[in-house]
Design goal:
Blueprint lengths: L1 E7 L11 H4 L4 E9 L6 H23 L3 E7 L9 H9 L1 E5 L22 H13 L2 E3 L5 H8 L6 E5 L15 H9 L3 E4 L3 H4 L5 H13 L6 E3 L18 H10 L6 H15 L3
């Protein structure tokens, strides 16, 4: 089995979900390693925090690379500290995705918990355009709806690294994506990582819940645009899914629950590989 996972918080939070030893279970394993910067840090403090965690990542890069194809990501654009030049710095460090906000407000935009109806700020629009020029993908997970639609207006493939369906978990509609947003991602040729957060999945948050969200995304036209975005080490995950070593069983459970075998390689590997690794 090959695995391409679009989000984990292991660089900043260790809950035991990610293990390099467990990565050896897979024929290939690619992983986006996010530097999560909390909303409580702003300005230079946020920038310094990112730089410190990114430096630590690079000291481990050779060890990680023996098992994994790693891609560095930033979760929360507050680490830009309002400075466009930091995008060039981050690109040089290997950052290839930036989640524009976390739940709160920063210099770029308004997160999903702000309640704001405003979209990207002026700096956010400048930063998103510069990201596109550099080859860094703006990530709309955690962004409020107005910000999402501003990113969609860039007319580029839309990326949501770790999100689920608002229709199936309405209590967490503030964090999940609406059907209109999902259709926009699919129409753009973009990519969504299906998050394993127990709350955001709704129900028991187990394989059955994953199957429901995956089936819903497929029904909206997402067969070539849906991947896994576990959010390992960043959230509470049902015990049956909580770790890399549980994912082969998830694969088997999805077959048991009726998914065609040609769909699952797309979900677990091919769609993300095409998005991140195929030449333009």
């Amino acid at each position: 089995m090959r695995l391409f996972d679009l989000h984990c918080d292991t660089l900043t939070t260790k809950m035991g979900h990610i293990s390099l030893d467990h990565g050896k279970l897979f024929k290939q394993w690619a992983q986006l390693w996010a530097v999560f910067v909390p909303d409580t840090l702003q300005g230079q403090a946020a920038a310094d925090y990112f730089d410190r965690i990114a430096a630590s990542y690079h000291t481990q890069h050779s060890e990680i690379s023996r098992v994994c194809q790693p891609i560095l990501a930033l979760e929360n654009g507050n680490a830009l500290a309002g400075d466009l030049q930091r995008l060039d710095h981050m690109h040089a460090l290997g950052v290839r995705t930036i989640t524009l906000t976390w739940n709160g407000e920063n210099e770029l935009a308004y997160g999903c918990r702000t309640g704001s109806s405003q979209g990207l700020k002026t700096f956010g629009k400048q930063a998103a355009q510069r990201m596109v020029e550099l080859g860094i993908h703006p990530d709309v997970s955690h962004l409020n709806p107005a910000g999402f639609w501003d990113v969609a207006a860039l007319d580029k493939p839309i990326l949501a690294t770790h999100s689920t369906c608002a229709t199936l978990a309405p209590n967490f509609a503030w964090r999940n994506l609406s059907d209109d947003q999902l259709r926009a991602i699919f129409a753009s040729g973009g990519l969504i990582g299906l998050c394993l957060c127990q709350d955001f999945l709704g129900g028991a948050g187990d394989a059955q819940a994953v199957a429901q969200h995956l089936a819903h995304m497929l029904s909206l036209g997402g067969e070539d645009c849906v991947a896994l975005g576990s959010d390992f080490d960043g959230c509470t995950v049902h015990e049956s899914l909580a770790g890399l070593d549980k994912l082969p069983q998830l694969h088997d459970d999805l077959i048991r629950l009726g998914f065609d075998e040609h769909v699952l390689p797309k979900f677990f590997w091919e769609n993300a590989e095409k998005f991140f690794m195929s030449p333009e």
